[in-house]
Amino acid sequence: MNDFASRRAHFRIVYPLVERPSFEVGRYVYEVIDCSELGLRYEIKDKRMPTLGTQIGGMVQFRRGASIEVTGQVLRSQNGMVVLVLDPPGITFSGILGEQRYLRSKGYTLRE
Fold first, then answer.
1. Could you tell me if residue 112 is inside a domain?
2. pLDDT of amino acid 14
3. d(CA 103, CA 92)
4. Which pLDDT tens digit goes with each residue over 3-38?
5. What does the alpha-carbon distance between residue 29 and residue 59 come to, in Å, rounded to a whole number?
6. What is the distance of C-alpha 35 from the center of its chain?
7. pLDDT single digits (tens) 39-96
8. Which of 6, 12, 20, 108 could form a disulfide with 36 if both were Cys (CB 3.0 to 4.6 A apart)?
């Protein structure tokens, strides 16, 4: 399977600014930019950028009220953004669909 096909094997939700979930890691809270079943990208506004390969865990709190505990490894860390590859089970497919339904009910059009 080529890179393009594997990247598109999972739904990804890119959040509007006002609907971004929070990602709580210890006493720090970050905004989630986008997520899929196996990945999460969040914004860091301070200078505490984790290094590649660091294992990070925390709680994702979605605006619709659901929350999920996730862990993952830092794949990328640059320009105030961190990309995590989530450990199984990641975010469930039903959780991603719930996010899509929630955002559509708020009038957002979902695009990548």
1. no
2. 93
3. 17
4. 444 445 678 899 999 999 999 999 999 999 999 999
5. 9
6. 3
7. 999 999 887 899 999 999 999 999 999 999 999 999 999 999 999 999 999 999 999 9
8. 12
Phi then psi for residue 107, to 5 deg, are: 95, 10
Determine the 3-state secondary structure of 91 from DSSP: coil
**Residue 109 and residue 103: Cα distance in Å, rounded?**
8
The residue assigned the tokens 């105030």 is 80
Which CATH number goes with the domain that contains 48? 2.40.10.220
DSSP string, 18-64: GG--EEEETTEEEEEEEEESSEEEEE--SS-PPPTT-EEEEEEE-TT
37 belongs to a structural domain: yes
108 belongs to a structural domain: no
* Encoded amino acid at 15, one letter: Y
* Predicted TM-score (pTM) of this structure: 0.86
> Cis ω on the peptide bond leading into residue 88 (within 30° of 0)?
no
- Residue 4, number of CB atoms within 10 A of its CB: 8
